[in-house]
Amino acid sequence: MNVQILEQTPDMLRFILEDVDASFANALRRIMIAEVPTLAIEDVIIIENTSALYDEILAHRLGLIPLKTDLESFVLPQDCGCGGTNCPRCSVTLTLVKEAKEIDTQDDSVIVYSGDLISQDPEVVPVNDLIPLVKLDKGHRTELEAIAQLGKGKTHAKWQPVATCSYKYIPIIDLNTQECTVCGDCVESCPQNILKIEENRLTIQNMLDCILCKLCEDTCDFNAIKVRWDNRIFAFVLESTGALPTEKIIKKAIEILQEKAATFKAEIELIQEGEKSEGYRPN
Ligand code: SF4
Ligand code: SF4
Ligand SMILES: [Zn+2]
Fold first, then answer.
1. Distance 275 CA to ligand 2 centre (A)
2. In the chain, is it the N or the C terminus that has fewer CB atoms within a 10 Å radius of its CB?
């Protein structure tokens, strides 16, 4: 298996994964979406909420705020020695108190933002301080306590570490220069503008942007262009919500995949041992 990084920022990663099949690539994608844990607000204790927003909607919005997550410092509530009763190993408390006192005109209002949450752990804070939660009118007040826990995207999307995680096959475009009349019809039809005519020749630029739609192939009356792909090479793109860096997401996903494979192997061996000791029993 080969990995080639094309582009990397703390929140975005584009890479090529070579020499694997679609089932492996898809397992990796699904684990990154659904099984790499992150912290998100799970319980909200509303002490006061005189805003126009129902408590439930406010709690839902709080749950969707991505929180910076340190996977080494926390465990899933179901794996915690406290039995998931919100001890410091499996939870973090954030508080919020905001009141609209200083409003003079009718059109004025105070907006409560994610950045107004005060966390008991300085490492566990909203990824972005400017996510609006609720608008307070004159005299309105919101006071609450929010408890964040580790969870997985397969339980609720608020625990997904990625906003996007997808892959596609790497395109291969074959040009038959003998047959090509440089008519330019395929250039017109390409939605990605990757085909160009330069110095009386058809050229391909940024081949990775090809979406394999084959419109160029359909347009060509001379069978001069063919689009295919290698089904063992994938171009991945993942965008983090900011809860975890992309590198951490992929490393954790690989770790989880290895654990799953080891468990599967151990289970198969147990079945085989059982069959050996009990002998073969047809149904
Ligand atoms: S449509 Fe066919 S012949 Fe025309 S430029 Fe494209 S590949 Fe060449
Ligand atoms: S397959 Fe589609 S995107 Fe790719 S080169 Fe042809 S027309 Fe453009
Ligand atoms: Zn605990």
1. 54
2. C
